[in-house]
Amino acid sequence: MTPHDDPFPPDEGGLTHAMMIAALNQILAECGYDPVPEEDEPAPADAPADRLIEDARHRADGIVAAALETAVQYTDAALDQAARTVLSARRTLAPLPAAAGPLEPARQPVPGARGQSLGDMWFAAAAAAGVYLPIAEDAATRTLEAYANCLRVATQASPPDLEAAYQVGVEVVALGVSRPEALPASMTLLLDHLSDGDSVPRPARQVAGAFAAGFAAAVQARTLAQQESLHRATQRAAREFQSALQHSEARYHRLAYYDPVTGLANKACLGQRLRQSANGDDPARHVGLCLIDLGGLVAVGEQFGADAADHVLTEVARRLQRVARHPDYLLARHSAHTFALLVQDSGGLAHLAELAERLTRELAEPASLPGTGLTAPLHAAVGVVDVPTAGLDVTRVLLDAEIALRQARAGTTGWAAYDPLPAGPGRSRTATGVSGLVTGPPSYQPVVRLGTGLVAGLHARMAWRHPHLGTLDLTRIGQLTGDRDTTTRLAGSFLRQACRQAMTWDGGRKGPFIGLELPVHQIGYPDIADLVREALADSGLPPRRLHLHLSGLDAVPAGEHSHTVLTALAALGVRLELDDFGTGHSSLPYLRELPLYGLRTPAGLLRSPATGPDADRDLLTGMARVAHALGLTLTVHGVDDEGVQARLAGTGVDGAQGLRYGPPTTPHQVPALLRGPAPLAAVVDRRVAS
């Protein structure tokens, strides 16, 4: 389903526009006010998401404004009515001439039967004024009769009890006689009740005035209480409307820009973020895109149904989220079986290549199919694009990612970077161009023989600078390009340069060895053997002085081919050392079958916080015994601090390499290293031995 196909179905049980109006009108009805009229029909459901969100916001703002306007209108009207009531009471209490007769009420009821009580007449007058009392008529008449007697008692007191009369006015309103129209009729009856014949004495007028004042104050307080209640109800309705608007807007936004199956951003959100990235002003800023394809997902849907396919998609999204944790990353579902990882601040193709490798590793394991006990292989492929944000074309970026993805499907590495150059006869279609490589100066770091402190050899390293990929070594160049010819050519140049340089330091057979890291598995047989043979013949370096440091991948069991490559190299007389012993493929029976000279292990094995110096020393002692039992040497590399250096003494380790024995140096500084022992090594050995 696309983001615009029926994007906003109505929520069951949620607040709708009609329900908001009904809630407001119910509040107004409870306060005795007219309802708010209905608004026009809302926008059609098939309108774009932005229009629906704007329409919802406009309608909610209109509802809140109408509620506030109604509250102000009714509050002003109530206060005006209360003011008129007070003025009416004051006019009623004005001094009356002695000859004046009883006041005629505005809506005076017709007198009842002979012997009718004052309570009956007061109840009838209130009813004629539109008052409804929520109690029985008998109880109401008795109560009003009691109030009238209280007023008579207040009149007869000396001085008149005006406070009691005021309280009677308040209680009459509390009883329910609260309409302002009922005051004139009530005053007429009470003045007749309190008068002495045709004249109204001053105490009677004072008591009647206090009663009218209490009545007016109670009506005004009641009006203010209603106004406050309406104000609070309006505020509550406004909060509910705002909350409903926020939930609706968030829901519309999520349906418009997020995938309902995986919860990830969808293609519309991805395009929006790409357009935002194109607005950057920094010409050096790049944006990267990894397009991830899931092969086999269609087959899962066809064989096990849509629910199983959605389960696989959810599991894939969960795995990808483990990689895309950085705030600059946006993980999105691009299509039915492809995902996209947007890197909004890319560090170049080397950065994206590392991401692509992590993504393929996360998707290497099959996905489980619930209820079947089976798993589905994913066959993930990743297409990578890196472009500057200046002048970014969203359509072009997505198209280039599709091209790179097709190249990744056709390749064997699982991923490919988009290459704008056309493929030629001698150029691999899946290769990333490495034109513009600048060869850096080689560096040599001493490898010290423990016990004597003498420099036994030099570990050589070579790096190449690429304008976009950064600093690369041979292994990384091979991974990024997939071009075996380029890797072989660069490895041969490095090998010949190192061998010739070694001969300039000491041409004898007892000179220091040269250790090199070559991607043997990328170059393969017989090319690697030919490179070594030509370098030895060209330089005249004795073969035993050339040490090749093999990674775990170089020595991993891969049938007869791997054994053939290593055997051919050993037959030339060079010495092979397995690097990172103890961290990768370290099968002891397999080590006995390889033509190895020594083992190399990283000092990082000794930096676990759970182990102390004694445990680390015991570990090194055991590893040295294993190496010696196999007829091999053991060298620890990466010894950069004094603590690790101190743990090497007395363990049987043959050699060490790291900053504690000397930093990487240029070829011209090497002769000074060969003149004597490494001072730090001798000092530490003597201190530990003592």
UniProtKB/TrEMBL annotation:
<dbReference type="InterPro" id="IPR043128">
    <property type="entry name" value="Rev_trsase/Diguanyl_cyclase"/>
</dbReference>
<feature type="domain" description="EAL">
    <location>
        <begin position="421"/>
        <end position="678"/>
    </location>
</feature>
<dbReference type="Pfam" id="PF00563">
    <property type="entry name" value="EAL"/>
</dbReference>
<dbReference type="InterPro" id="IPR029787">
    <property type="entry name" value="Nucleotide_cyclase"/>
</dbReference>
<dbReference type="InterPro" id="IPR052155">
    <property type="entry name" value="Biofilm_reg_signaling"/>
</dbReference>
<dbReference type="InterPro" id="IPR035919">
    <property type="entry name" value="EAL_sf"/>
</dbReference>
<protein>
    <recommendedName>
        <fullName>Diguanylate cyclase (GGDEF)-like protein</fullName>
    </recommendedName>
</protein>
<feature type="domain" description="GGDEF">
    <location>
        <begin position="285"/>
        <end position="420"/>
    </location>
</feature>
<dbReference type="InterPro" id="IPR000160">
    <property type="entry name" value="GGDEF_dom"/>
</dbReference>
<dbReference type="Pfam" id="PF00990">
    <property type="entry name" value="GGDEF"/>
</dbReference>
<dbReference type="InterPro" id="IPR001633">
    <property type="entry name" value="EAL_dom"/>
</dbReference>
